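Journal club prep — side note

Before the paper discussion, L.F. wants everyone to see what a predicted structure for a comparable chain looks like in token form. Sequence:
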Amino acid sequence: MSTLAHTVSDSKVMLRRNLTHQLRYPSVTIMLVGLPIVFLLVFVYVFGGQLGAGLGPHQGRHAYLDYVVPGLLLITVASVVQGTAIMVATDMTAGIIDRFRTMAIARASVLTGHVLASLLQTLAAIGVLIGVALGLGFTSSAGPLAWLGAIGILTLSAIALIWLAVALGLSAKSVETASNTPMFLILLPFLGSGFVPTATMPEGLRQFAQYQPFTPVTDTVRALLTGGAVGDHAIVAIAWSCGIALGSYLWAIRLYNRRRAATLN
């Protein structure tokens, strides 16, 4: 068997292992997937009437629902990848990673299994939130290609954040630390265009919101789903996602190899 085939085969085994863990502990998945839905209900039905008042010709709660869904889709991604950091840290602190290193398996398959399982979980969570949003009255003028584009941007962002979560999980000294360090990923959409237009923010916060990585992703998804102009938002969103993915991947590999070297010594 070639090296590539060996890696693919081992990655499938690790993917099945991580999916089994997700099914065995459904409370974690329900909590991570349920948080964005709670945000959706609170912001639309508690704050939506007021926050939707200045969104243009179509105002009110329904207009705010259409506005806030793209930001909540990104929060869904950030929420689910928090579980990735927890699972990676659990494996590291429980010693199972060290046991894997003594077995004849491809080293890349261990982290790849976590990434693929988290990506599938993220895509499922995105589907759940979209379904709930449509049930509440979310309307989209997007065609099939625009929907595919929006899902593609979210998938690329998810891959970037998953690798970041893997690195955070590898660097954490405990599971509790791993559960807290990714929290800033959930906060960043609030400090961007996810819930209110950046033009309404104070000067300093507005500049931060315009140049942080989550804003172009949110603006791109919103434009694709509502028929707006994408402009250069998509290019910036892709650049941010690829940069975060590459940096996080290299960081994760370095941490994993360092742990392996320490174990061998």
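L.F.'s comment for the group: The chain is about 80% helix and 0% strand. Keep this in mind when we get to the figures.
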